[in-house]
Amino acid sequence: MFAAAAQYLVSGLTVGATYGLTGLGFTMIFNTTGIINFAQGEFVMLGGMMSVFFRTWLGLDLFSAIMLAVAVTALVGAAMERLTIRPIQGASPINLVIATIGVSILIRGAAMLLWGKDTFSLPPFGKAAPIAFLGAAVQPQSLWALAITLALLTALKLFFTTSIHGKAMLACACNRKAASLMGISVARMSLFSFALSAFTGAVGGAILAPITMTSYDVGMMLGLKGFAACILGGLGNPFGAAVGGLLIGIMESFGAGYVSSAYKDAFAFVVLLLLLFVRPSGLFGKAGVERV
User: Fold this and answer.
1) Strand partners, 214
2) Which of 61, 70, 62, 55 is nearest to 115 (CA)?
């Protein structure tokens, strides 16, 4: 029984890492632009699918295929901001959300036409045998996923605290008008936030593809779970979103193992709803008061 719990924990942390990276993408865009980007899940899908495409059809090695896929997905995110969001920047929030949903449908349809409805996978990053951990067999790919997620979070933390562009994005998150008055290009930071969120989402899709495989339609559920992670950790808190993703992955894994895998996708949302009744701002969010 203890071995099974350890296995569920490792599995939950592995998929939770991807949920956390997806939630982190939601948070970066929301902080800079105030928009909830429901195309974020499609960035995760593109990271996995294009990695397979570049490796299989172009014959690149695994590392080069993933790097190219992540770079192209970042360009897709930047193009989305420039072609879809910027022209309607002054629209109401609901119109902006609908626009992101439309982009999500467009990307999913294009992926289906380009790659079909088949399921694809990437080879694991390492060739090592499973590692024994508390009676559980841990696949090296799980360790790769956790290590890459931790490294990316550390890099983003350094980016936001030490680089001029990171500080400019944080300034836009605090007060867009004040940031603009201080000479920061809010439009450029908006473009950069979309590219960076697409980058993190694509990394999540690439590290998950060797474990759960990927297809043109995986982005919808991954996006919903990433959004749930964002809300669970506290909307606007980047690293709270990462922790929220890990928690959702663990809840999902234990629920599937001890209750039923048929309800795997429901456990996290049920717990999320219960939590929001108690703490609407999320685990790490700050409750705010708005004077009207």
Assistant:
1) 120
2) 55
Which residues are registered as beta bridge partners of 120?
A: 214
Asked if residues 77 and 199 have their Cβ atoms less than 8 Å apart, the reply is yes
Q: Which residue has the tokens 């717990």?
A: 271
Mean of the per-residue pLDDT values of the chain: 84
- pLDDT per residue as tens digits for the range 131-160: 777 677 778 888 888 899 899 888 888 888
Cα separation, 199 vs 209, whole angstroms: 16
pLDDT per position as a tens digit, 42-93 = 999 999 999 999 998 888 888 999 999 999 999 999 999 999 988 887 778 7
265 pLDDT more than 90: no
Helix (H, G, I), strand (E, B) or coil at 138: strand
Burial class (CB in 10 A: 0-12, 13-18, 19+), 97: middle
Where is 136: in which H helix or E strand?
strand 136-138
H-state helical runs in the chain: 2-33, 40-56, 62-80, 93-115, 140-162, 164-174, 176-181, 186-212, 219-233, 238-258, 264-278
Of 101, 39, 50, 103, residue with least CA distance to 73: 50
